[in-house]
Design a protein that fits this description.
Length: 119
């Protein structure tokens, strides 16, 4: 097993352990930490003012999810899934036009494969 496949397997297992948004296991503290980390990721949101990032994450969540999967790091993607929940992120990615790498990340982390590229 290569180092990359080991890293991806670890990340996939972390995603499986994330609580579903709205479940009793989910805590607002976890989502708050994920949101705080994303708010401070200025390179992800280069085209909006730093003061607007928090609002964008709250009110434009579909846009934010796609942006994070297209330009974010693996940690950003995990934070995105923590913040919005697997169900919401899967729904958004399934209905969005994505760049190839974002599409691959959606498949690896959440099994998104609307174009049957990986079946």
């Amino acid at each position: 097993m290569s180092a990359n496949s080991g890293h991806i397997s670890r990340l996939k297992s972390e995603v499986k352990q994330l609580p579903k948004k709205g479940s009793k296991k989910s805590s607002s503290g976890v989502a708050s930490l994920a949101a705080a980390r994303l708010v401070n990721r200025r390179p992800l949101f280069w085209d909006i003012s730093p003061e607007s990032i928090k609002t964008a994450l709250q009110k434009n969540d579909d846009w934010a999810i796609v942006r994070i999967f297209q330009y974010g790091t693996l940690d950003d993607i995990l934070d995105c899934i923590e913040l919005y929940g697997k169900k919401k992120v899967t729904a958004v990615l399934s209905s969005s036009k994505l760049r190839p790498m974002a599409y691959a990340m959606g498949h690896l982390f959440l099994g998104v494969d609307t174009e049957s590229k990986y079946s």
